[in-house]
Specification:
The protein is an alpha+beta fold. It has 17 helices and ten strands.
């Protein structure tokens, strides 16, 4: 580096130093793992933890080999050799276990204690999974990692990403199941906005039949609607308070699933003690049919501290679609009518809009029941003048932007299709990455990762 005279020479020298540092880091990691594995006290401690974990599932664990060679992928992408004890789960009977197979699973106790899953260190799993979920493809993620000296193959990158996603989703399910409200969360005393919207993902499902030429298995696809939510706090000026990180999350589940997820995040962040909570969305029936009331009850908020807002631009778009449907109107008439209705909408004068549709239906003898029901059903959710006075948002642009960033730019595209589990997992990872809450996901994964005992009953011998 000292001998460099040009930018290119210094760049090559710096990259060489970086690669040597990565090799040294991998060597140090391998040495540390081997030292821990050679420590009798640490081996006994790790084995006792594995046995306690197995005992909770009614499984017995015995040491199969005191030293077994395995490869471990470090954060630099390098594989290091480690000789470490190996234990197996015995079947729930007195029958001897000849092979691991379907009778049970094995585990490296020392590595499991350190969070090494799938023969990869926790730091390497988290690094690769973040690159894969943030980049627009696995190939792009691998190229970015390789530019930093981290080499990982395509299948390895997917395997590590899906394992992290599986741990993260498991943690979310457990947290939702045993949740209690957090009285000291980030949103205590804040003005909170929660918005929800749907996207589109192509889901792949295996079907029966012989594989196609080349060995490709048969499948069929269908479009599904992933539901994305965002939660953020308002500042004194009525705009988003950027000092408090927003929350992004999503699910491929139904309407009840996304509202359960919404309730989980609001309670864990202390929104039940917020100044007020505002739900903003488009006019989709699945959002407004009884579920906002159930959410308000779960938060324990009175009606005056819980607001419901239908997105202004969706309502305006509905008016525009109606004007386009009037074949007997000129362009000038359409524009003039739409301008007048826009002013009414901004003022929250929904009764005037309702009156127009009622009069048109009566005078022209046409059925406008759908339009009249829409404006009547959402009348109180369209009082935009009152919302502005209270400093509440009038639109759901935040969640529409989230759908674009989380779903459309990664999970949706030509010829892109996913299995449902992998789509749910990557959606969860990408939501945390794009909301700046990756540290929360790392904590969840590190708390959840580890060996899960599985040991089947041996096959019963048939008595003649």
């Amino acid at each position: 580096m000292r001998a460099a005279r040009t930018a290119a020479e210094f760049c090559d020298a710096e990259r060489l130093v970086h690669s040597l540092a990565l090799k040294m880091a991998s060597s140090l990691t391998g040495s540390a793992l081997q030292a821990i594995s050679d420590d009798e006290e640490r081996r006994a401690e790790a084995l006792s933890l594995v046995r306690a974990k197995a005992a909770s599932r009614g499984v017995t664990v015995d040491v199969d080999r005191r030293r077994k060679k395995t490869l471990v992928r470090t954060i630099s992408g390098t594989l290091v050799d480690v000789f470490t004890p190996y234990a197996v789960a015995r079947p729930r009977s007195d029958a001897p276990l000849k092979t691991r197979g379907a009778q049970g699973t094995g585990v490296f106790p020392v590595l499991d204690q350190l969070g090494i899953v799938g023969r990869a260190t926790p730091a390497s799993r988290l690094l690769v999974s973040r690159a894969v979920c943030e980049a627009n493809s696995v190939t792009s993620a691998r190229e970015l990692l390789a530019a930093s000296g981290v080499l990982v193959d395509h299948k390895g990158a997917l395997r590590l990403t899906y394992s992290v996603a599986e741990d993260a989703l498991r943690h979310r399910r457990e947290a939702m199941r045993r949740q209690t409200p957090n009285d000291s969360g980030e949103l205590v005393g804040c003005r909170v906005v929660v918005a929800v919207d749907g996207g589109r993902i192509n889901i792949r499902r295996r079907v029966a039949g012989r594989p196609k030429k080349g060995g490709r298995k048969r499948f069929e696809t269908e479009w599904r609607e992933p539901k994305v939510l965002t939660i953020y706090a308002l500042g004194e000026d009525g705009r988003r308070d950027k000092s408090i990180r927003s929350v992004l999350d999503g699910t491929l589940g139904d309407a009840d699933a996304v509202f359960a997820l919404m309730r989980y995040h609001l309670l864990r962040l202390g929104a039940h003690k917020a100044l007020d909570v505002t739900l903003v969305a488009d006019a989709a029936p699945w959002i407004w049919t009884g579920r906002p009331e159930a959410l308000r009850d779960a938060l324990g908020l009175p009606a005056e501290r819980f607001h419901e807002v239908v997105d202004y631009f969706h309502a305006l778009e509905r008016l525009g679609d109606f004007s386009k449907s009037r074949a007997d109107w000129s362009e000038l008439a359409r524009g003039s009518w739409l301008k007048a209705q826009k002013e009414r909408l901004k003022a929250g004068d929904i009764e005037a809009i309702e009156a127009f549709f009622a009069d048109t239906e009566r005078l022209n003898a046409e059925d406008l029941t759908t339009e009249r029901k829409y404006w009547k059903r959402h009348r109180e959710r369209l009082r935009f003048a009152a919302f502005r006075e209270k400093g509440l948002p009038n639109g759901s642009g935040a969640v529409e932007s989230a759908v674009r960033r989380v779903v459309n730019l990664r999970l949706k595209g030509a010829s892109i299709c996913w299995t449902e589990g992998n789509a749910e997992g990557l959606l969860h990872l990408r939501a945390h990455a794009k909301s700046g809450r990756w540290d929360e996901l790392e904590s969840a994964v590190l708390d959840t990762a580890g060996w899960r005992p599985k040991c089947r009953q041996p096959k019963k011998t048939q008595v003649a």
